[in-house]
């Protein structure tokens, strides 16, 4: 048991209390951010004359060595310390002696952990964004190659109107685009530096908070020190954005599972992304899609958990807030794994285009177009709807499609039908006539693909930054 705060105590902490209180088991993930934040703090302290330049150099070297040693496996993060902050500081003192004891000047673990978590979250926002962009590239490539791959569109899981694979995938492209926009908003809103807020009321040292903020790639310092140490909004927003990403992935997975089923047979998931059954030799299961759908639950759980933890906390820091980490880390990792696996599955998935088109010609998916045909012959839409409804009933009776009826049979129901009906309600013309913005018709679709390609190319570039060497 190693703590930074023994002075005021006359007894050792109970060992169960120590274990219950400690966070190093999970906050050791933050070691890079903790060291990065400390280096920026040291550079700023020296600029302000609070540390000498020799002290600064010794501290920076010590901190850099710790990071390198951890990364090279030469230094194991010792879990007898309370948290990662205590471990790094104690190890630094062990390495560099006296100057190490000055590291925590003008700082509290409250602003330190607020900074570490923000730096870590900011990095994960960017990683998630990069994975989403990769997924969207696969989606858009598939759209481009499938502008004329016809398939049924559904409402209530019943065939509704014919559409294309490009159009169906385009719906997900839009969802993922909104997901990326949310990430950018979150990044920009969270990109303010809490370091220098101290425990809650700032410090008496003449810190240059703007300078530390700039060193760490933030827009500027946060403006209220109490809020700085007790704000976890950015993390809740990120968990909420992650939940939406999972909701989108989960819906996409559900469709792939359906399309992959024996009944649909629209797609063939690649062998590399499927699994078998231990008893049924014929099985090839869509486990990846099911797992991604399933893991949505734990990401929602992380969001709900943190919202509930934060509810009712008085200002400023409370230890409850240590609970912001485990489930959030899990959610961040889960979403990145899901995005990676899902993208691979999508990239390798095959389409059974004839089955898809064949399915679109059944189930009266062209009934709306048949009604529109009658409107073209001067029949008011409501009457046309009724006529086609009767036609559909008659087809159900005969076990055929509208296109199967002879002209005589059609004309028994309405004398407005002519031989041009067949072409008007063919699968191709049902789709190609839909040319409103956002519709599946070839020209409309190509225009959306062009806009989407442009969107993917003009990349969101967060500001590049590194610690300056202006010693
Ligand atoms: N492990 C703590 C956390 O994650 C660090 C901050 C501790 N501050 C304190 N005053 N106990 O929130």
What would the keywords be for this entry?
471 residues, mainly alpha, Fumarase C, Chain B, domain 1, Ribonucleotide Reductase Protein R1, domain 1, 3 domains, two-stranded parallel ribbon, 19 helices, 59% helix, binds arginine
Write a brief caption for the model:
The protein is mainly alpha-helical and 471 residues long.
Can you put this structure into words, describing what you see?
By secondary structure, the chain is mostly helical. It folds into three domains: 15-102, Fumarase/aspartase (N-terminal domain) (Fumarase C, Chain B, domain 1, Orthogonal Bundle); 109-148 and 163-200 and 219-358, Fumarase C, Chain A, domain 2 (Up-down Bundle); 362-448, Ribonucleotide Reductase Protein R1, domain 1, CATH 1.10.40.30. Helix content is 59%, strand content 4%. It contains 19 helices and six strands. α6 runs parallel beside α12, α7 (165-190) packs antiparallel against α10 and α10 (233-259) runs parallel beside α12. The longest helix is centred in the first third of the chain and has 37 residues, at 109-145.
